[in-house]
Write a structure and sequence with these properties.
About 35% of the residues lie in helices and about 20% in strands. With about 190 residues, the chain is of the alpha/beta class. The two termini are about 25 Å apart.
Length: about 190
């Protein structure tokens, strides 16, 4: 069950706490590793809950168009398998190396690429986890500002995105509050 903490005035951006694998959106975003073959964190949870169909499609992508894996900042869509979502959009976030190696732009690219793919597939709702803030070590406050600003800029500059609903879903309430505070939505 999703616990909604914030909804923008226009209702298009929602910040919530819950299990992203349970949300009934058109697409959920997987913070994948470049192999696309599953891993820990949200990647493992999505592969586990979605079942073997996701992995099979990821393997097919690796064997055809992505023999070297999915590059950081790019996105690709697959079936959602047994998930309530229609599609899973996989993206590879940057590994934090101190901020001097283009990590901010790569992270912003993850959000833009996922939204662009959602538009191509004519999806009306998408749920993002906190990309790169787990084992990849991206500072949570910095990632929160990049995520929010990138999505807001995309929605404002892309007319065909006028009706998409964007969820930011966090596994922990602490992480959700970091996101809210970093973007001036609440004061702790």
């Amino acid at each position: 069950m999703m616990k909604e903490l914030y909804r923008s005035d226009n209702g298009r951006c929602i910040i919530a706490v819950g299990d992203i694998t349970n949300i009934a959106c058109d697409a959920i975003v997987n913070a994948a590793n470049s192999s696309l073959l599953g891993g820990g964190g949200v990647d493992g949870a999505i592969h586990s809950a979605g079942g073997p169909a996701i992995l099979a499609e990821c393997r097919a992508l690796r064997n055809s168009s992505l023999p070297n894996g999915l590059p950081p900042g790019k996105a690709v869509a697959t079936t959602a398998g047994r998930l309530p979502a229609r599609r899973v959009i996989h993206t590879v976030g940057p590994i934090w190396q101190g901020g001097a190696y283009g990590e901010d732009e790569t992270l912003a690219s993850c959000y833009r690429e996922c939204l662009a793919l959602a538009m191509i597939e004519q999806l009306k709702s998408i749920a993002f986890p906190a990309i790169s803030t787990g084992i990849y070590g991206f500072p949570k406050e910095r990632a929160a500002k990049i995520a929010w600003n990138t999505v807001q800029d995309y929605l404002a500059s892309t007319p065909e995105a006028a009706s998409i609903i964007v969820w930011f879903v966090f596994f922990s309430e602490i992480d959700a509050h970091i996101f809210l505070e970093a973007n001036g939505k609440i004061k702790l």
